[in-house]
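Recall that a protein's primary structure is simply its ordered list of amino acids. Everything else, from secondary elements to tertiary packing, is in principle encoded there. The following example makes that idea concrete.
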Amino acid sequence: MFIGHFGAGFAAKRAAPEVSLGTLFLAVQFADALWPLLLLVGAEHVRIAPGIMKVSPLDFTDYPISHSLSALAGWAILLGGAFFVLRRSLRGAVVVAAGVVSHWFLDFLVHRPDMPVFPRGPYLGLGLWNSVPATILLEAGIYGGGLAVYATATRAKDRTGTWALWALVLLLFGLWISTFVAPPPPNTIVLAVSGIALWVTIPWGYWIDRHRVTR
């Protein structure tokens, strides 16, 4: 899943208005932010296998640190605890922690049975990436719904608050659409670097939130 995670981050703003959108993006995307680093150092592994699923060419052979449910629960406690220490907001800490764990459940919907519960299994997944229409309906629905929640929970306090938000929305949507038509990445290094490039969404989220206020 790609933009669905961002939809979850957008929606979480209503549950915890005190948490910046940048922090919410970090939470829901934490697994995918950590994963490319682990690929580069050889701690986790993926195989590029065109045709393995209709939407994704990736065979996730080994990613227990970034994507197992038990590891994400640990990362959730760490990030949620850090937020509580820094901001003294229990509600915000819970929302941040829930955002981290939400990544596993959203990926569970689309992955084939390769999502580890514990580092060495069992492995689960509903495999909706084997259906292009189902993938589009699910991801677009979560993304659009989350964005609608954020847009109604906040308002722009200046022009930057409007165009910075919609520029990111269109960029993410365009990147998502490209995944349906672009060729598979040539190697795992290119894949990892492209994953690291998405870190820009985190400071972008902080930037957006500085120019918006909660309703």
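The radius of gyration is 17 Å. The chain has a mean pLDDT of 97.
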